[in-house]
Amino acid sequence: MSAESPLRTAPDPARVPAPAGRGPASGREAVLAAATDGGGAGAGTPAEAVRGRAARAGARRLLWALPPVALLAVFFLYPLVLVGRQSLQPDTGGTSLRPYADVFASAGFREALWTTVWLAPAATAGCLVLGFLLALVIAFVPFPGAKAVARFVDVFLSFPSFLVTLALLFVYGQVGMANGLWTDLTGAAEGPFRFLTTPWGVLLAEITYFTPFVMRPLLAAFAQLDTAQLEAASSLGARAPRIVRRIILPEALPALAAGGSLVLVLCLNEFGIVLFTGAKGVTTLPMLIYSKAILESDYPGACVVAVVNVLLSVGLYGLYRVVSRRAGA
Amino acid sequence: MLVHSRKAKWAVWVLFLVLFVPLFALPLLVVLGASLATHWSGVLPSGPTIDHYRAATRGEALQALTTSLLTALAASLLALAVGTWAALAAAALKKSHRRVMDALFVLPVAVPSVVVGLSVLVAFSQPPLLLNGTRWIVILAHTVLVTAFAHQSVSAAIVRLDPAYEQAAASLGAGPARVLWRVRLPLLLPSLTAAAGLCFALSMGELSATMMLYPPDWTPLPVLIHAATDRGALFAGSAVAVVLMAATLLVLFAVSRVRTRASYR
Amino acid sequence: MSIRFDSVTVAYDGNVVLDSLDLTVAPGEVMALLGPSGSGKTTALRAVAGFVRPASGRVLLGERDVTDLPPHRRGIGMVVQQYALFPHMRVEDNVAFGLKARRATRAEIRQRVADALEMTGMAAYARRYPRELSGGQQQRVAIARALAVRPAVLLLDEPLSALDARLRSGMLGELARLHRELPEVSILYVTHDQIEALTLADRIAVMDKARLRACGTPRELYRAPADEFTASFVGNANLLPVTVTAGGAALGSAELQVDTAGAVAGARATLCVRPHLVGLGDGPNRLTGTVSEIQWRGSTHRLYVDVAGHPVMADLRELRNPPAHGDEVSLHFAPEDAVLLAAGVGGDER
C-alpha cells in the first residue's frame, strides 16, 4: 500500500495508514466483511444482505433518537396524561365523568369557551390583514429605515405579550393618554374609552402582539420572490393591485397559512394579555384553568378545562399540519 | 418596485406610519415613559422621577432579575441540548419516523403554556419526583416550553445544510463522530446561537406556566410585574418591565455578536 | 490502485439510474466518465465514494471489495463541483482535515499540508479562509485537500464546471501536470465536457441513459466510434443515412467508397464523417449540394450544405472567397476518414 503513496515527498507513509492499509483485521471491518461474505456465500442473496445492513443501521439511528424522546415523554407527555387522569377523578373520590358534567354545566365555562373561540379567529384575521399590508410596504415600497423596521419586528417578537396590555393601560386606560386627551380637549370629567376591560381590549392587544408573528414569515417569503417577476408584470401593464393579487398573494399564501395557523393556536392559548387586563369580565379557557387551579384549588375542574383547551389547540394545529402537507408546503 | 409615482409612494408610507407607529412603536414608548413618571392623566406622563428604577434594581426586583436570568440560562441551554439532539437524530431517521418525531417535538407549541404549567404541577407534586415548591419545577416547565422552539429552528437549519460538506468530510476519512463535531456542529453554530437567543427571550418573558407553579423564593420578573400592576403600582411595574426588556435585549445583542462571528459567508 | 465496477446497478425508488456497469480503471490510469446529465456517470462515481449503495453488483478498489464499507473507510480522495471546502476552517485546516481524521502526528500533518499546498501552488494562502479565495483558488485547495491523504484513487466530479472558460483551460493543464507528478494515482473523472475528457483521459467511458455506451482511448472513440451516440457526443459528426453497396455505400444517388467492414450489401447504415475531414471542391467521394448556411468562426468557416435533403457540415480553414448562401458546391472526403455504423440502433455493444 505504501508503494502507492501518491505524493512525491514521502517522509514515512507507513506512519499514517491509509484505511486500505489497515487490513481486514480491525474489528468492525472484519465483522462487516464476515457478514457480507455470509450473504454472498449462500446464507442469502446479496439483496437480502443489503436489507439486513439497512435494518441494522436503521435500528441504530432509532436508538440515537431514544434519549430526547424519553425526556420528552417523562417531562411533557406523562404530565399531560396525568392531567387527563385527574380530570376523571373528582375530589369526592373514585373515577367518574362527574368533573366534566360539572364544568360543562357551569355558565362560566361556556362563556369562557365562547370568548376563546370567537376571539382567536378574530384576532388571527386582524393579524393576517395587518401583517400582510405592513410586510407588503416594507418589502415592496421600501423607505429609508425599512430595514430597521424589519429588525424592530424581530425585537418585538422577543418581548412578552403582557407588555402590550400594560402599555394599553396607559394609552386607553381609565386615566391614560386617550382619555386624558379627551378630557383636556372637551373639559368632560371622563373620557369615552373604556373598552380595555372588555373582550375588545383583549382583541386589540392580541392583534398588536401577534401581527409580527405573521410579518416575519411573510418578509422571509417576500425576500425569496424574484423582483424580475414584478418588473415583468408591470412592464406588461399590470397595476399595483393586480400585481399584488396575481403575483404576490399566491407566493405569500404558504407563509400566510403558516403564520396564521401559528397565531390562531397562540391566541387560543394566550394567557398573559388576558391576565393583565385584570378584568373579571373577560375569561378565556387558559384564564379559567388558572383561576380554577390556583385561586379555587379545583384541580379536577382545571384539568377538565385543560383537556378541552388542549383538544381544541392541538386539534387545530394538527389539522393545519395535515392540510399544509397535502398542499405540498 | 410596486408603486412608481411619487405621490402614491408617499400615500402608502403615510398609511404605513399611521398603522405602525400607534400599534407597535407606541406601546414600547409608553411603557418607557410611564416608568419615568408618577402620573399619567393627560397626553403625556407627568411627575418625572427615577425612583421606580431605584426600586427596580435592588431588593426584591433585583432578586427577580437574577431568578429570571438564571432560569432563562438554564432552560435555554437544556432546551438547546435536547432540541439539537432530537433534531440531529430525527434528520437521520427515515421519513415516516422523522415525521412522528417532528410532530412530538412541536407539540409543546400547540399545547397552552398554562396547561404545561398545570401538568408539570400535577405530575411533580407527587412521587416519584417531588419538585413542587422548588426552583427546579420552574426551570423544568420553561425547558419543556422552549425545547419545541429550539428543535424547530435547529431542524430547519439542518435541512438547509448542504450534504456536500459531510460527504467531503467522510471521503477524507472522518467517521460519523468527527463529522458531527468538526463539520456539522460548527456549520450549524450560527443557527444554534440564534435558537439559544430565541429560547432565552421566551423564557425571560414566560408568565403563563410560571404563574401556575412558582415558589415564593423563586419569583421571575414577569410574575413581579404582574404583582405590581395587580396592586395598582403601574408605574413601578413599568420600570421593572423596562428592566426585563433591557436585560433580554442585552443578552440577545451579545448572542448576535457571537453569531456574526460564527457565520462564515 | 485499480477501480473495478462489477455489474453495479443503482436504483432509486425502483428507478434504475445505473444499469449493471462493468468497468475497470487500471492503476495509474485516468478514466473519464463522459455523458449528458442523467446518464449515470455521477452515480457511478458516488458508488465508488460510498455515497450510494448499489442494489446489486460489487465495487472493488484494488483487490478489496468496498461495496459494504462506509465512505470514511474507503481511503479515496474526492473533489466535487462546488468544492465543499469547510467554510469555518482556514485553508491549512481544510487540507489537514483528512490527516487529522487518520490521526497523523503533528509534524507529519505540517509536512503533508505544506507539500500538498506547494504542489497546487496555494502555499501562500494557507492562513486564508475559503470565502477569501477565488473560484480557481478554491478549486486548488479542494484538490490539495484530497491529495494530502495520499489516496491511491482520486475521484473528480465535474471539478471544472464551476469555473469560467479561461480558468477552465488553465486548470485542465494543471490537472494534467498533477497527474504526471502522481503517476500511481488512478483517477475517475466525471464530466459532460468532451474537451476535458479528450484532453485528460487515458480512456473515456461514454455513458447514456444509465448505461455504458462505449469505452476506449480518446483516439479510438474519435476515429472509430462504435455507435451514433458516441460519434455525436465525442466530437462533432456528420451522420448520414446510407445503404450499403458492394463497393461502399450509397447516399441518395451518390456512390461513396468506404470500408464496409463486412456489412451486407443492401443493408441500411449510418455513415460518420467528421466535419473537419470534409473538404471543399472536387475529390474522391464527392457530394454536391446547396449552401444553406455559412458561419465564420475566426480561424475556420463552417458550411452547412444540403446534400439530397441531408445537412452536411464542413469545417474549413478560413476561406478567402467563401461561397454564399444558395451556392451550388462540391464536398469530398477521403474513404479512410469515414466510418460505417449500424443504422438507427443505439448500439448496446461495448
From TrEMBL, chain B:
This is ABC transporter permease subunit. InterPro entries: MetI-like, MetI-like_sf. Its main location: membrane. Belongs to the binding-protein-dependent transport system permease family. The keyword Cell inner membrane applies. Keywords: Cell inner membrane, Cell membrane, Membrane, Transmembrane, Transmembrane helix, Transport. It comes from the Bacteria. It is found in: Cell inner membrane; Cell membrane. The chain crosses the membrane at residues 12-37, 69-91, 103-124, 136-159, 187-214, 234-255. It is a multi-pass membrane protein. PANTHER family: INNER MEMBRANE ABC TRANSPORTER PERMEASE PROTEIN YDCV. Residues 65-255 form the ABC transmembrane type-1 domain.
